[in-house]
Please model this.
Amino acid sequence: MPPVAFIGVLLALLAGLAIGKAWERYKLQDGQWIDRRRARESPHYMLGLNFLVANQIDPAIGELSKAAHAAGDPLEIHLILGNLFREKGQVGRAIQEHQALLQRPNLRKLEHANVLLCLGLDYKHGGFVDRALEAFTEVLRLDPQNQYALSNLEKIYEEQHQWHDAYATREKLARLSSGSDEPPRHHEILAFLENELGQDALKRKNDAEAARRFEAAIDLDARNTPAYLNLGDVRFYEGNAAGAAAVWEKLIEASPDRAYLAFSRLESAYSTMGAAERFPALCKRLIAANPQDWRARLALARHLSSNGRAADALELLFEALVQNPHALALHQTIWQTLSALDLPRHLVNRYVDITRGAIFYLDPHICIRCRYRSTELLWQCPHCHEWNTFVEERIAPAKEAET
Ligand SMILES: [Zn+2]
Model:
């Protein structure tokens, strides 16, 4: 079963359960609660739920429709039916089903909110962003604590690049879930949103505000890599190479696994400062701290090559290749270096030996939430829209233990 479909089914069930609770809380005067019990006792209801659990949506719709009809069309079942149409991709029918529920007289506040929530999901699914936004906002007016509406709103704001609104929404979520969820995750996401606000400020050429935003992002989460990169860039373009280098060095301290993102920046900052020797020293420190660090070896090799030390560079590249035989950047640099050395036969043979059996691939970054693959390291997944979920994937660990 595709996970998305399964989640959809669960959501349909949960929405139904939420409505059920609302029902219990506000006993309806017109006898609908009796209808609801009658629906539950109907064999079609149980059959429908069984089909739902088995993710057989069409027969579930059939049975639940019968159960609804037999019990005087209770709101709960029609809410689920609408959600099932949406899951099937029939957004128009889902909207119809849910909109019809809004026309019912005597809708209680919480029921109204739940119907609007489902309608908002229909609109979102169908790409009617403005209407979805309206629906979720209305849900929050009726039920200000509705976390599901808040997180849907946040995602819409993010897609629209309305970072201020996304930030405010995440702050509300953080306040609501203090205690239940782990607070660091909220800080992590707020830091990414703050970083986006900084990038907006950069586009408006407001460097001072941008720098403040990037600093705020780092305060929220000391491991927010893009904020360090951006803050250093601002300092560097201000002509403050030493300040930039200090920021990037902090990044390496906080997240050594992301150090490589600052390599080329640090190399040029050091050389601007007249301290070019600090770059190879940094690479050597990183290699000593983590002998599997192939990126530091690659960076050091490139640095040595450009200083006329191609033979030393090649040794480092071969060591790096043992750590990660799949990295295309390594192979390209090795060929450049071999060419610079006029392709000595014994070195070419060593290269062929090391690479024998290695599998190449171009998209080594993978989202741990939805398995989306990317060539680049991304901060937000374009598929599931989660923040900071990419890890680097290696097909076979190449002598991980050997150091
Ligand atoms: Zn993803």
Notes: The first helix runs from residue 3 to 25. The pocket of zinc ion is lined by residues 367, 369-370, 372, 381, 383-384, 386, 389 (CB under 6 Å).
